[in-house]
Write a structure and sequence with these properties.
single chain; 149 residues; mainly alpha; globular; binds zinc ion
């Protein structure tokens, strides 16, 4: 996560049932869900996210690069992970662990710029919509805006 100061104060603050997501996005997200994103080796999980990434690029007509900490591809995940989005070269970087929510958060930056509030709002509500069980499991562990997905 970047050192921005506009993170929402809590998860509850940004829960929003009125967010409009494109139908094509919901369709792709449900397909992604059917792949069981948390199942497999780190490299297999990364491949599933990459599958999703390619579709998001198409849906939003953007060419965004996605790169992983090589340790993930070598099969090593940490307890915590993170990522960042570099606007200048349109590049999402992910490290530490394969995290669906971190990935979606960085896509929130792709779509909404540097605002942490907007990135959290877009990604957390999407995550909740597609993965309600995972969301509820993670919610009680949340610290501020951070969900350990
Ligand atoms: Zn962020």
């Amino acid at each position: 996560m970047m050192q921005q100061q506009d993170y929402p104060g809590s998860i509850d603050e940004i829960l929003d049932d009125t967010v409009k997501y494109r139908k094509s996005l919901i369709k792709i997200m449900n397909r992604f869900k059917s792949f069981d994103p948390w199942d497999g080796t780190p490299a297999e999980k990364a491949a599933k996210l990459y599958w999703l990434h390619i579709r998001l690029c198409k849906i939003y007509d953007k060419k965004i690069y996605l790169s992983w900490d090589p340790a993930i591809i070598m099969g090593v995940e940490s307890k915590n992970g993170g990522g960042w989005y570099q606007h200048l070269d349109r590049h999402i970087h992910l490290y530490g662990k394969v995290s669906v929510l971190t990935f979606l958060h960085e896509w929130g930056h792709v779509l909404y710029g540097s605002s942490e509030y907007a990135a959290c709002w877009w990604s957390i509500n999407l995550f909740r919509k597609i993965f309600p069980k995972n969301f509820n499991k993670l919610r009680h562990r949340a610290q501020g805006h951070l969900l350990a997905a």
